[in-house]
């Protein structure tokens, strides 16, 4: 079952060389484990999604250019919303207009298994 994600959840672009943490700025009141819950509006490059190291699709003679995110729109999001913005889930993905795909690699919250 997909779970909502929160501030500091680790994201990875499949064309980048390192992960980065999601920074939630889209809402200020809904929290899980004391951290703000992410929504589809947490998509701004260099504000919500920081660079992913170097981009494997952008090469030059001396190596690779920085992997500056160019997200288009979150997909596989929740049907539930926070302040009219759909929740992001640990299965959510976001295509990058350069050619990569941004996805969740590690959630920041702790889940307790039901017995």
Automatic annotation (TrEMBL):
Superkingdom per UniProt: Bacteria
InterPro entries: DUF4280 (IPR025460)
Descriptive protein name: DUF4280 domain-containing protein
Organism: Flavobacterium frigoritolerans
